[in-house]
């Protein structure tokens, strides 16, 4: 089986295997965000629990994107939640410690 290499005119382009993995991750993220945008708090809670249980797709999600995907949540609402929990915009769910998860889950009820 031949494999593309990163030499010659193809340099800088991902291999088909890498593109497939990135595509799958992007698709998984889109599905998670769509679920949160439709189901709201139950879906967001599920993502947090799934990440704690080792689901890598859930763990890769940024907390800011998840909060902005909540039905009726604005950028400012998401920013408020992140600030209260001491979380930066780009942090992933997998990077949260127990205290941050606790603060975040307690404050989720304040989203519209």
Describe the structure.
This protein has one domain: Helicase, Ruva Protein, domain 3 (Orthogonal Bundle), CATH 1.10.8. By secondary structure, it is mainly α. The N and C termini lie far apart (53 Å). Helix 4 crosses helix 5 (75-85) and helix 5 (75-85) crosses helix 6. The protein has helices spanning 16-39, 41-52, 56-60, 63-69, 75-85, 98-107.
SSE diagram, text form:
Layout: H1 16-39, H2 41-52, H3 56-60, H4 63-69, H5 75-85, H6 98-107
Helix pairs in contact: 1-2, 4-5, 5-6
Q: Which terms summarize this structure?
A:
0% strand; mainly alpha; Helicase, Ruva Protein, domain 3
Q: How many alpha or pi helices?
A: 6
| Class per helix and strand makeup | mainly alpha
Global mean pLDDT: 83
Report the CATH topology name.
Helicase, Ruva Protein, domain 3
Helix content: 55-70%
The total strand number stands at 0
Instruction: Provide the succession of SSEs.
Output: HHHHHH
User: How many angstroms separate the termini?
Assistant: 53 Å
**Biggest beta sheet summary:** none
How does the overall form come out from the CA principal axes? Answer: globular
Q: According to CATH, what is the class?
A: Mainly Alpha
Low-confidence stretches: 1-9
State the CATH architecture: Orthogonal Bundle
User: How many domains make up the coordinates?
Assistant: 1
Rg to the nearest angstrom? 17 Å
Beta-strand percent range = under 5%
What's the short version?
Mean pLDDT is 83; it is low at 1-9. With 112 residues, this protein is mainly alpha-helical.
């Amino acid at each position: 089986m031949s494999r593309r290499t990163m030499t010659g005119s193809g340099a800088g382009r991902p291999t088909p295997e890498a593109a497939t993995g990135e595509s799958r991750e992007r698709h998984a993220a889109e599905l998670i965000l769509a679920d949160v945008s439709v189901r709201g708090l139950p879906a967001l809670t599920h993502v947090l629990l799934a990440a704690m249980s080792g689901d890598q797709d859930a763990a890769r999600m940024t907390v800011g994107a998840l909060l902005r995907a909540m039905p009726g949540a604005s950028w400012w609402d998401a920013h408020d939640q992140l600030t209260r929990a001491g979380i930066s915009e780009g942090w992933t769910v997998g990077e949260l410690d127990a205290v941050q998860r606790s603060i975040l889950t307690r404050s989720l009820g304040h989203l519209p």
